Amino acid sequence: MPMSILALRTALVLAAALTVVSPLSAQTASRTPQPAPMAKRPPATVAELYAGARQAALKQDSKTALRQLNQAVAKGFIAAETLEQEADFISLRKLPGWVRLVGFASARQRQHESAFDPKLMALMREMRYQDQHYRHIAAEAERQYGPGSPQEQAAERAQSPLDLQLIRQVDSLITIHGYPGKSKVGEYQKSTAFLVIQHNPDEKYLPLLTAAADKGELNWSSVALLIDRTRGMKGEKQLYGSQLGPAVNGKYTLQPIEDEPNVNVRRARVGLEPLEEYLKQNYDVAYQVPTATHNPNPPELYTQPRSATEEEEESPVELIGGNEALYARLQYPAAARQQNLSGSVTLQMTIDPQGAPQNVMVVRGLGAGCDEEALRVMRAARFTNARGQDHEIRMSLPFPYVAGK
């Protein structure tokens, strides 16, 4: 799924207690039972402060929201653009304290990033902008008009060609630098390459990202998202509950989860908040973690598998021009030719009501430039859509293509 910003945990409320003790004689004091010292609560984390600020802003408690945001920015690595793109903070944007907060966040980021290669940092910032710009427009359209609105689909169509360009840039960066993580681009940009990969998901990147996370170059929570997505692409259940299915009657569905009673145990290990908090804060989905013997969630919460009858039905979408015309547009990459590489690239996509492929993903790749070429050709393809509804399909594109075979 496209990727959105992960929700953060609800903030803890810290209190300090002052005890006033009346003066006592030494003898009395020695006989008076002394209370056990109170255990101190740990300081609130950046995630807890940020989540608390979101909740305070939604309750129109701007003073608390700004205070917690200032603490979070001072303590962590929260970019000014993250603050400005957060829909929950709309009520804060006209306040004088908001301008100071954004300036504070910008200054901290500039100071942090001044220690890294300026050219590389400029490239990472531009890549992040291109990866996120239309996705934020789509998210805002979804908030205003509901899932699947024409406004949301238009933004997604605008994003699609950028994704192919960006994954090529990331592949080049990986060839030169390895994964461009914390040691090369700092805390603010360490997830930029991951975002691009997440939006062009392929399990070939998992060993690289896993190694980066083990070295502290990338958050393990990011790797968990790609694991879920690639498992879903293979028809397997997700592990961390990060992937949602299509909306039904305006409400999101949750893709099936392996060993669901222990989903929050796995999420905690990689630094993700409890699933019920994530779903409620980001998608207004009510959820309870089931036990081994009882699932309190309604069946309609979960993405339903297609029945055998549905699988056998004639597809409502049809490729304009046919498969042969599509294959003829494929260019056999030079790298694949040098390796004498042959096979098929399998793609998964959603055909929107207008017949345009959306969210085109590589399910099984070949490498050597074939995956990128398959994405290029498929994103330019058009279909007829008899039902006028989103329809998910898979297609395999051959490399090299030989006409008549």
Radius of gyration: 25 Å
DSSP helix fraction: 40-55%
Secondary-structure element series = HHHHHHHHHHHEEHHHEHHEEHEE
Number of strand segments: 7
Instruction: Give the CA-CA distance, first to last residue.
Output: 35 Å
Going by helix content, strand content and strand pairing, the class is: mainly alpha
Mean pLDDT: 84
Q: What would the principal axes of the Cα set say about the shape?
A: globular
Number of helices: 17
- Main sheet record: 3 strands, antiparallel
* Side-by-side strand order of the widest sheet: 5-4-7
Beta fraction of the residues?
A: 5-15%
- Provide the number of structural domains: 4
Low-confidence stretches: 1-33, 308-312
Q: What can you tell me about this protein's structure?
A:
The chain is mainly alpha-helical and 405 residues long. It folds into four domains: 41-113, no CATH class; 116-211; 219-307, no CATH class; 314-399, TolA/TonB C-terminal domain, CATH 3.30.2420. It is built from 17 helices and seven strands. The chain has helices spanning 26-31, 46-58, 62-75, 80-85, 96-113, 118-145, 150-177, 182-189, 192-198, 206-214, 220-233, 263-269, 275-283, 308-312, 322-328, 334-338, 370-380; strands at residues 244-248, 251-254, 317-319, 343-351, 357-364, 383-385, 391-399. Strands 5-4-7 form a three-stranded antiparallel sheet. The two termini are 35 Å apart. Mean pLDDT is 84; it is low at 1-33 and 308-312.
